[in-house]
């Protein structure tokens, strides 16, 4: 049981310059007994309102240096404070506020919300067990208008999809990764590096791009790039929900539409998912 959707803004001031972190936190506990379920005995139950207050107090006392560290702080607090807690799991996601720039000059106290992917993390721990840390990015919308196709797929009497050598590749990406043994990582640096890996693998070189024969190959390229460049990451789970665009037929309007006006196909949409990890970690 636990408390979901604890939303708050943490404001930190350094003189005239302000820093903000707006987050949503979900914290769940499992207790050492089930008396509250079986007997209606609530003597071990930590009220969910107390859970909420603890999260807010930790934000006030410790700040939010990184999402991962804040989630670790929450888990450690419940494990060290309450002997009846057998397991704790905390999920934190961030509202994407970025500092506002005016004529290239960063503003001291103004921010703009830029929805270019939502950062999140997940930390869990069993009593006498290690901290397990996950991080990720979701709702990252990506598009490239060429250097993508889909050919040579299996066909039968139900196949109506034509082969395409050149198409728009567009989708919404979810990517979640796990770390090995939790050490003193620079979580901000790692997250930014992984985001760069995602963009690099999706788009290819800026002057020419890189051809994608399928959404599946693009997902694999993203995961391989992350694992090759970020040794702290052990397993990468990636889901790419596809957005298709159909070319508008303008013959009745006496116009030739050479893939210049297209409409999105909202539903149904395709989706591909893959989990890729280092062999020794998967075997463990």
From TrEMBL:
| Record's keyword annotation contains Oxidoreductase | yes
- Catalytic activity entry: urate + O2 + H2O = 5-hydroxyisourate + H2O2
Q: Which UniProt keywords apply?
A: Oxidoreductase, Peroxisome, Purine metabolism
Main location (coarse class): other
Is Oxidoreductase there in the keyword field?
A: yes
Write down the top EC class of this protein. oxidoreductase
Q: Where in the cell is it found?
A: Peroxisome
- Residues binding urate: 48-49, 150, 167, 216, 242
Q: Record-annotated residues binding O2?
A: 48, 242
Q: Which InterPro entries match?
A: Uricase
Pathway involvement of the protein, from the record: Purine metabolism; urate degradation; (S)-allantoin from urate: step 1/3
Quote one Gene Ontology molecular function term.
urate oxidase activity
Can you cite a GO biological process for this protein?
urate catabolic process
**Where along the chain is 5-hydroxyisourate bound?**
48-49, 150, 167, 216, 242
Give the Enzyme Commission number. 1.7.3.3
**GO (cellular component) term, any one:** peroxisome
Q: Which family does it belong to?
A: Belongs to the uricase family.
Functional description taken from the UniProt entry: Catalyzes the oxidation of uric acid to 5-hydroxyisourate, which is further processed to form (S)-allantoin.
Protein name, as recorded: Uricase
Q: What is the species listed in this Swiss-Prot or TrEMBL entry?
A: Rostratula benghalensis (greater painted-snipe)
């Amino acid at each position: 049981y636990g408390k979901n959707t604890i939303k708050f803004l943490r404001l930190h001031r350094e003189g005239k310059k302000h820093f903000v972190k707006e987050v949503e936190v979900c914290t769940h506990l499992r207790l050492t007994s089930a008396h509250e379920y079986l007997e209606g005995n609530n003597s071990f139950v930590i009220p969910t309102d107390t859970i909420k207050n603890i999260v807010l107090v930790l934000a006030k006392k410790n700040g939010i240096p990184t999402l991962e560290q804040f989630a670790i702080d929450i888990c450690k607090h419940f494990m060290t404070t309450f002997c009846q807690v057998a397991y704790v799991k905390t999920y934190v996601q961030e509202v994407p506020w970025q500092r506002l720039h005016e004529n290239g000059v960063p503003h001291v106290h103004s921010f703009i919300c830029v929805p270019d992917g939502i950062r999140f993390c997940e930390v869990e721990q069993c009593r006498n067990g290690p901290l397990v840390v996950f991080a990720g990015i979701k709702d990252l919308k990506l598009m490239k208008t060429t250097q993508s196709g889909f050919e040579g797929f299996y066909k039968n009497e139900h196949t109506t999809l034509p082969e395409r050598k050149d198409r728009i590749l567009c989708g919404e990406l979810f990517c979640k990764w796990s770390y090995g043994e939790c050490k003193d990582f620079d979580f901000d640096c790692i997250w930014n590096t992984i985001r760069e890996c995602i963009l690099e693998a999706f788009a290819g070189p800026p002057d020419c791009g890189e051809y994608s024969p399928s959404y599946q190959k693009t997902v694999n390229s993203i995961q391989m790039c992350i694992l090759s460049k970020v040794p702290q990451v052990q397993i990468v789970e990636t889901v790419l929900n596809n957005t298709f665009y159909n070319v508008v037929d303008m013959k009745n309007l006496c116009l030739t539409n050479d893939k210049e006006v297209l409409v999105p196909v909202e539903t149904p949409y395709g989706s591909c998912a893959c989990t890729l990890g280092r062999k020794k970690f998967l075997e463990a």
